Amino acid sequence: MHSRITCLSVAFCAYTPTVINMPDSTYFKPATLAAPSLASLSAGARHDVARALEEDLGTGDLTASLISPTSVATAHIVAREAGVVCGRPWVDATFSALNSDIDVQWLVAEGETCHPDQVVVRLLGPARGLLSGERVALNFLQLLSGVASKTQTYCQAVVGSHVAIVDTRKTLPGLRMAQKYAVAVSGGVNHRIGLFDAILIKENHIAAAGGVREALAQAQLVAQADTTDTLKFVQIEVETLDQLALALQAGANMVLLDNMDLATLRQAVDMNGGRAVLEVSGGVTVERLAELAATGVNRISIGGLTKDVRAMDYSMRFQVT
Amino acid sequence: MHSRITCLSVAFCAYTPTVINMPDSTYFKPATLAAPSLASLSAGARHDVARALEEDLGTGDLTASLISPTSVATAHIVAREAGVVCGRPWVDATFSALNSDIDVQWLVAEGETCHPDQVVVRLLGPARGLLSGERVALNFLQLLSGVASKTQTYCQAVVGSHVAIVDTRKTLPGLRMAQKYAVAVSGGVNHRIGLFDAILIKENHIAAAGGVREALAQAQLVAQADTTDTLKFVQIEVETLDQLALALQAGANMVLLDNMDLATLRQAVDMNGGRAVLEVSGGVTVERLAELAATGVNRISIGGLTKDVRAMDYSMRFQVT
Q: In which domain, by residue range, is A24 found?
């Protein structure tokens, strides 16, 4: 019996979903998640875009009224730096929402790396729609390309190891699916999407349940009773090797090791003996990745993938006719 | 006749709205904007929070079911680094949406600076609601405090000059009002909120209208015809001193100087002679602020205030009883 943590995969993405084989356990509900369909991803993007257009356009684009409604333009979105191109569903949805006559041609595939001054998208259509959509489209593209580029940097820092780079719930509010998509596009692995699709037992839950064994037993009952068919895993967070020993004795098959130093991590890996999937979290920087990976843990989760953002630099250039 | 660009002010914010006196002009519609009321800010925050809770909670918090529904807890949100505290309406709205019995006490005022390990918020109420709301509340608080802290750094770099630090529309999609609020909390000035509340004439609009004079004349007609009562200003972007001369001759009272070097900026200020409000944009870093301010321009707008984000570090600590 094997279960998988599948990242958000979409038909047109140039990446291979990362799969982790998880040990069997009575604490794990073995539903294999279906990756979101292209249709559901597009629907999510349309939802995000509608909100962004609403806040930008409000009662209407006053400046666009300086342009004739019959003007047609070509435009190019140009990368001004190297990075991973990401955000196509959101860019497409932006122009599609503004004017269905706008033609959007992608010259760089989603998830591919571009170089400075490379034309990434070519657009053709009514000038007003192109001008009104420019900023919203670029805001999605620069954000998601920034997340994907950072994820790529982190993934490259552990090339050669078998460790997975994993995101967290420390995301920009309202942009979780978009950011988790960007992480997956660059080969990162999505942790739980939210509170609904996995159980992560932390200190307070352990205290409330009366101990590690009791908390895991309760979680098993919750998992068995769950009827949503979206539960991916049960994970327990431990802060000490004693807690890890208790969790392993209780049959935990996925453990989060919180803020342990390297020596303790190596001991945790030895103690585990391949039984549970071990994840490191807390204070992880790109500089520390190689030494963390070398301890033999399976996953490293990093809040900074999604909570700290540096937008990738793009501009849009027009030729109005 | 004087008009004002008023930042988003709210009753409980510990900051003074920044006001710029603008020269008179036929191109400027002199409506003084009312600052958003506390009620409208709270409504916006509730809207943002509903979306963030939806994406995090989905079908429900599976792990919270390990905690008794009758458990009560106290919790503290602690700053783990120094910075500007910002995000109170969103944190309040998060816990209020989850359980109206949760009491949220702020120990640091909105917009005030905190020190590492300082307790910023004390919470008391049903443990499940506190645990389910923790991440969403912290995601808003860490993001908005990050924006406010960065804005403070930029504002402090121009202390002693009269230059205003101004935001842009390069924001995180769906979070524009929240981010512009955070900029204003730290003494930054909000540029237009979106395409609906000001006219910014750029290269393509000038080309389509047939020149600087024609574009400004058309914009005046649009401004006069606008019935929304939200139009704040008409601004024109120029790339050369020749274009600036044309704009000033045509009566422009607000000009965006795009990517000019320091010598050209000084010439622009001389040529302007105090007639129009001059704004610098393009490639502005905190290191360049002092020299840009010294040219005598009135405003410096910075995309990086809102498009690049470093979350401020907070944690939430619980005592479940």
A: 2-31+152-307
